[in-house]
Amino acid sequence: MSISVLVQHEDFSMADEYAQLSRDSSCGAVVTFCGLVRELSISKLHSMTLEHYPGMTEQALLAIAEQAQQRWQLGAVRIIHRIGTLTPNEQIVFVGVASAHRAAAFEAAQFVMDYLKTQAPFWKKEHSSQGQHWVAAKTTDQQAARRWE
Amino acid sequence: MSISVLVQHEDFSMADEYAQLSRDSSCGAVVTFCGLVRELSISKLHSMTLEHYPGMTEQALLAIAEQAQQRWQLGAVRIIHRIGTLTPNEQIVFVGVASAHRAAAFEAAQFVMDYLKTQAPFWKKEHSSQGQHWVAAKTTDQQAARRWE
Amino acid sequence: MIKVLFFAALRERLNTAALELDSSSFEHDASAAAVLQHLQSRSADWQQELSRQDLLCAVNQKLCSLQTKVGPGDELAFFPPVTGG
Amino acid sequence: MIKVLFFAALRERLNTAALELDSSSFEHDASAAAVLQHLQSRSADWQQELSRQDLLCAVNQKLCSLQTKVGPGDELAFFPPVTGG
Q1: Which residues of chain A from 48 to 107 reach within 8 Å of chain B, CB to CB?
Q2: Does pLDDT of A26 surpass 90?
Q3: If you average pLDDT over residues C20-38, what whole number do you get?
Q4: Count H helices, E strands: chain D?
Q5: Is the entire prediction scored with pTM above 0.90?
Q6: Helix axes A102-119 and B102-119, enclosed angle (nearest 10)
Q7: Alpha-carbon gap: D85 to the closest alpha carbon of chain A (Å)
Q8: Cα separation of B60 and B80, whole Å?
Q9: Which chain B positions have a beta carbon within 8 Å of A30's beta carbon?
């Protein structure tokens, strides 16, 4: 079982991440999630700044990956989250899970995203044509995380 | 909304598929599933042959993608399934979904795989050190598909 | 004519991929079950192979029940549970 | 010393990223709530910002409740609900 988490300014390559995840010859299922910076509905987004809590963030992501590993039989879990300034269409977050079974891979990837959204110390600030403002947390994310309790 | 399905002998490129799916600037979430040929636990797998029902298979995949589109708000659904002879570690199937919301992307990708597993006319034959045999359908796949009814 | 196709293990066991039946030998509103019954009567082997509980049926390339009506020009297919993905 | 950190909107509103408190001014088994109360008493602004219902607290880089005990050398952090991903 391989777990790895990264918090970085640099972009990541989906192709490289997938190649790494699909290497384990006992895992027939690879699920990936990618989150990207998207346009806003009410104003023009110029950029987004991602703040984090250095030290705690890495620990939180690692703890989430370890919980996933305890709940499901997984071959690999990989989490990458970017910080700093990102512009529309840029990649923000990658979660990849390899497993022998697709149900485990799908559920673990969802679990990781739901917990990351509610427990990993990242904060987004949007810079748009209407000025800058901190993104508000969504109750739907809290609800999504609660289903795993 | 873009739907596309392919049934082909040729391999596919996860990188190309992801690049295509992540293009839609209104979709912040991209979920992919890849199924790969894996080793057998009891014997050495030499290869696997995938038979299909030409014509019906494409229609079945399209119908599954369309049902997903009706159930969730999606930007794109892409399904690729290979046929013919595949060797260990080769890619078999790709399902990619882009959506504005991650829950929709995750659920739609799972739905597509669950229905593909139980409704799309493909049959696997394994060629191993113990001879050749047709893979048996799994009741867990039937159960997985039933949860969407 | 009614076209009948077999796939995978069933195709191998029957040693038949496709055959054409004269639709005039069936009633006007015959069902897939009637065609199946006709095929089962061909031999003890066919009887056995085509009586499996898990046999799936498609009419004109759509999964359906054996109650589905079939007629001239229709394409029927029988096959084991699918195992793709 | 007890180290206290603020993040994101809270950091901006308090205009403070970090501060250090003399741990001797707290009881031996003081909780994060006691530290929070001390910080709230600094001004009306701090009182308001640090009384939000959705305020999260981490002790030594782990999310925890305000009942968690803190002491010399500990790192406390207060921040708004997280919005990564």
Answers
A1: 88-89, 91, 100, 102-103, 105-106
A2: no
A3: 92
A4: 3, 5
A5: yes
A6: 170
A7: 6
A8: 12
A9: 32-34, 36
User: Could B56 and C82 be called an inter-chain contact, meaning their C-beta atoms sit closer than 8 Å?
Assistant: no
Interface test with A, best of D4, D61, D65, D79 (most A CBs within 10 A): D61
- Between A26 and A33, the higher pLDDT residue: A33
d(CA C28, CA C44): 27
Judged by CB atoms closer than 8 Å, whether chains meet at D84 and A137 is answered as no
Contact state of A124 with D84 under an 8 Å Cβ cutoff: yes
Predicted confidence (pLDDT) per residue in A39-96, tens digit: 888 889 999 999 999 999 999 999 999 999 999 999 999 999 999 999 999 999 999 9
pLDDT digits (tens, 9 = 90+) for D8-20: 999 999 999 999 9
Residue C55 φ/ψ, nearest 5 degrees: -60, 130
Q: How far is A73 from chain B (nearest CA, A)?
A: 16
Looking at every residue in chain A, the average pLDDT score rounds to: 96
Type of residue numbered A101: H
The complex scores an ipTM of 0.95
CB contact under 8 A, D85 and A51: no
